[in-house]
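Fold it.
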Amino acid sequence: MTSIYDEILSPVALPKMFRAIQHFDASHIEDVSSWIRNEVDSFPDISVVRGKRVAVGIGSRGISNLPLLAKTLIDSLKSQGAEVFIVPSMGSHGGAIAENQKTILHHLGISETSMGVPIIASMDTVKIGATVDDIPVHMDKNAASADYTVTLARIKPHCSFRGKYESGMVKMCVIGLGKQHGADYCHFQGMAHMGENLDKIGRVYVEKSNLLFSLGIIENAYDDICYAKVVAKQDIMEIEPGLQEYAKTLLPKIPFKNLDLLIIDEFGKNITGTGMDCNVIQRFTSEHMQASPITKRLVTLRLTKESDGNASGFGLADISTRKAYESMEMAKTYPNLLTSRTVIGGRIPLIMENDYDAIRAGIKTAPDVDYKHLRVVRIKNTLKLSELEISEALVEEAKNNAQVTVLSTTPCIWEFDENRNLKL
């Protein structure tokens, strides 16, 4: 197979690459299911769910062992006598269309069959209150009509703003259960004010909603669950900031700076809201965020199936592939961006026909490069940073880093198929 860009890109040679691993704190919960059952059963007011309808809010993130977490939470509530149903809780994701949000859950392993309970999807909300400065507070109408609501929320640093409350239990209520309406009101002053808006709106949720508790989850750098706690709604505003700070200490990073090229095999909404974790790549979808750039060029190769066409964050890459572009559905991407009032993540990178051309184009266009000593890192996605491929120019630096071990003594082989795409 040849490419129309071969003549331009033919001088570009791919560097020798070596496999390496990063070492992180591996502490985690061994038996997550038993842990969560105990958390639910030990909740002081759990008896109130007996004979009651309980909505379980589940979002669009690819949380580690999400089907197991959700099923255990649901079964624990059912064992207490609750009549449980699932509400997709993901703001404007899925193009702000209810059926699409149900599809996203299915991609994540959450279905009526696997969970054994109905999934009731709607974009309709009810107003449950307002902040002191008159921001209306919205809640999914089906969740609001239940006797109680509980949420499953991953706590981690947000990719586009800073505050006491970022991604976590508060955001799951305000934006997840708020659906497009709630998300829109929370974002109306832009990302710079998201932290304070989450605080204000979250306090109304605690006071006015039927929320019973949130199951807060924290993952370590290996994407394993290291913290799981049932938090009563009246305690969320006090407890979550400390958990957010703890989560920040666990955030994995790329152990090199001044890269010529960073290759990310996949991006998507199941990985993080911006497709690629802005905190990892140090490129942000919000203009007010301070970055410490680590790479001259960023290439991403494909959009995950679980994203269901939502390519939010695509614009963080400089170069990508036709298959990634053709996986993007604007009708499922742009409602998310319009609601969050950000445009950077929706821009289209330079699109090349295949992986081989995209990688070569990344090298070709990187400014001020020593082609004999290319500084290149390849990762699967921004959640999977324990395994790396690094170029020969980084090997000595890696060996001098106690957190990194170089595994291979001979270079990896760049393997492409007949369509010039990497064999993954």
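The chain has two domains: 6-24+252-406, 32-250.
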